[in-house]
Design brief:
12 strands; Rossmann fold; Arc Repressor Mutant, subunit A; single chain; alpha/beta; 5-stranded parallel β-sheet; 4-stranded antiparallel β-sheet
């Protein structure tokens, strides 16, 4: 059974999320403070974690950053919750390492869809395989990505995007296809989320000097195999 940790300081929202997710067959632990969540993660790493951004004490952004700094939790799937429907809050959360976000208020069906999609893609490959393209190296077993010998700190979704583009490097991949492949069919309308992730991925790949991802206007993206 997949275990999910939920950190939310609003009692009503926390309890509702816990009951709803248990009804979908997950083992749930809920926390009011991020400090308690981080302590529990040191004892047992869950399958997925959900953090509200606005928490007293350690806020959600700081908690995510702390988890991403540790090798054992750097690939832990994380969803952020925010009551602020602004692009800046979402960008900050994704930049700190969150893999997806939900803006309050949200439905439990939307929450479960996002959780299912993220968990589907958290299963690691059992067969070790290293892909090398130019000065980029991708270890599909450990999910480590190196560029010019330096390890890149990619979020879960950034890695999935990069891997899908590399796997389909012979052609242009449409936005709709990327959303379906990486987020699942539920997210076909959220092109802004995709574009933000692509922007972060490009920054980490050092696109100013070595372009890897080409934008094909009106269609999607293509991975560039040759300089």
């Amino acid at each position: 059974m997949k275990k999910i940790y939920i950190t939310e300081d609003d009692d009503n929202i926390r309890n509702l999320m816990g009951i709803a997710m248990e009804s979908f067959g997950y083992e749930i632990k809920t926390f009011e403070a991020a400090e308690d969540t981080l302590l529990e993660i040191e004892k047992e790493i869950p399958s997925l974690a959900i953090f509200d951004l606005m928490l007293s004490g350690i806020d959600g952004l700081t908690a995510i950053q702390l988890l991403r700094e540790k090798p054992e939790t750097k690939n832990l799937p994380i969803i952020i919750l925010t009551a602020k429907d602004t692009e800046l809050d979402k960008v900050q959360g994704l930049d700190k390492g969150a893999d997806d976000y939900l803006t309050k208020p949200f439905s439990v069906l939307e929450l479960s869809a996002r959780v299912r999609s993220l968990l589907r893609r958290s299963v690691k490959s059992e067969e070790q395989n290293i892909i090398t393209i130019r000065n980029l190296q991708i270890d599909t077993d450990t999910r480590d990505v190196k560029c010019s010998g330096q390890i890149l700190e990619l979020s879960y979704k950034e890695y999935e995007l990069l891997k899908y583009l590399v796997d389909n490097k012979k052609r242009v991949v449409t936005r709709k296809e990327l959303l379906s492949a990486v987020w699942g069919y539920e997210y076909e309308g959220e092109t802004r989320t995709l574009d933000m992730h692509i922007r972060f991925l490009r920054q980490k790949l050092g696109e100013d000097t070595t372009p890897y991802i080409k934008t094909v206007r009106g269609v999607g993206y293509r991975f560039i195999e040759e300089e």
